[in-house]
Amino acid sequence: MTIIIGIDPGSRITGYGVVAMEKARAVHLTSGCIEIAELAFEARLCVIFDAITAIVREFEPTEAAVEKIFMNRNADSAIKLGQARGAALVALAKQGLAVHEYSPNQIKQAIVGRGHAEKAQVQHMIKALLSLSSAPKADAADALATAMCHGHTQQGLVAVRSARRARAGRYS
After folding, report:
1. How far apart are CA 43 and CA 24, in angstroms?
2. For the domain that residue 47 is a member of, what is the CATH number?
3. How does pLDDT run along the chain (172 residues), one tens digit per residue?
4. Which of 35, 50, 139, 142 is catalytic?
5. What pTM value is reported for the model?
6. 67 is catalytic
7. 8 is catalytic
């Protein structure tokens, strides 16, 4: 079983989600939002770092996945998003986790089947795939989707490698 933490970074709200992958099935362990909009910007970065550190220590994931930044029209917002993402990345790295990155389109494609899916569609699919009683908040759903995207991607890579080894064994 692999435990994966997914992060949807944001300078006002950072989503997180932790899933356990049991073969092709994801099991929800925790998810939520680090809501920090009311804090001074420097304090937001500290809260993101501390909260992610605490989640990693509690659930002990073996892998981490983070949503890549998409270019925003507002340069100031994009810079702040990058700094919030940096705080999350450092928290993960300080706990010894390698970070895997996925674009929003890759994540939506993996979960919804459409790279340009709406947030409500992601929330609906996460609720269904994880058998949750209600849809998580949008940022938490995005974080769970990021973790699940990584889990399914890794399982696909393992299957490809196994098939290659099996073929190589037949011809040697």
Report:
1. 39
2. 3.30.420.10
3. 899 999 999 999 999 999 999 988 999 999 999 999 999 999 999 999 999 999 999 999 999 999 998 766 788 888 999 999 999 999 999 999 999 999 999 999 999 998 889 999 999 999 999 999 999 999 999 999 999 999 999 875 555 555 666 666 665 5
4. 139
5. 0.90
6. yes
7. yes
